[in-house]
Write a structure and sequence with these properties.
Distance between the termini: 90 Å
Largest sheet: 6 strands, mixed
Strand content: 15-25%
Shape: elongated
Number of domains: 2
Mean pLDDT: 87
Length: 221
């Protein structure tokens, strides 16, 4: 009997869709993804990705989503062209973030929610930066349940806290109480510290020079 050839199945690494429709949406996606990287950088068994296609079912490349940001506990860090769940010990992303844009329709949004509910997401966060809409969905049994009171909500998995100000701008706080930061602010703080270090080094060199003028070896002080 001749062996039956198993057809090759392709799992594309791109869905042909842009990551964001405008600069504000893009900024928020990068902001959340990069801060999650920093938050979880010391745990080698937590994988964080942004706009990466997730295939939950082997043999079904048509079943897929590319969350704006997702976190997978129990999987190692590292580069991937896509997240094929059957190659990842069957572990589904536990936490997913979506940043909405004006072009997102209710039908599209509802399809995503049902997809994440079907395939095992535990926490689903939705934010619309244009109007301040923020929603949290948490797994209850086999489905995602809508959380009524989201102000001050703390992620069970990540330990991060969500608050909105009077303008409905979302603020996210790490477990230690510090805020998720814009990377422009991180760079500015790095430059400030570097400048302080340079000033301290200059003062030390001036002091050592003065001691030498007085005939004192700084190494012996």
């Amino acid at each position: 009997m001749e062996a039956v050839a198993i057809p090759h199945i392709t799992y594309p690494e791109s869905d042909g869709q842009p990551m964001a429709e405008n600069t504000r949406q893009f900024r928020w996606i990068v902001f959340i993804k990069k801060n999650l990287d920093l938050l979880l950088q010391h745990d080698p068994n937590v994988f964080v990705a942004g706009d990466l296609l997730w295939y939950p079912v082997e043999g079904r490349p048509d079943i897929r989503r590319a969350p704006d940001a997702m976190v997978v506990f129990g999987r190692p860090k590292g580069d991937r062209g896509s997240y094929k769940q059957w190659e990842e010990d069957g572990i589904a992303p536990q936490v997913v973030f979506e940043i909405l844009s004006p072009g997102n329709t209710f039908i599209e949004y509802d399809k995503k929610r049902r997809f994440y509910g079907t395939y095992g997401v535990e926490e689903y966060y939705v934010y619309h930066p244009d109007d301040g809409m923020f929603q949290v969905w948490e797994r209850k049994g086999h489905n995602l349940a809508f959380v009524e009171d989201v102000e001050g909500w703390v992620s069970p998995r990540l330990g991060i806290r969500f608050e909105r100000d009077n303008n409905l701008e979302l603020h996210i706080y790490r477990p230690d109480g510090s805020k998720f930061e814009e990377f422009e602010d991180v760079a500015a703080e790095r430059d400030r510290l570097r400048q302080e270090q340079n000033q301290m080094r200059q003062r030390q060199e001036q002091l050592e020079a003065k001691l030498r003028e007085l005939g004192i070896d700084p190494a012996n002080v």
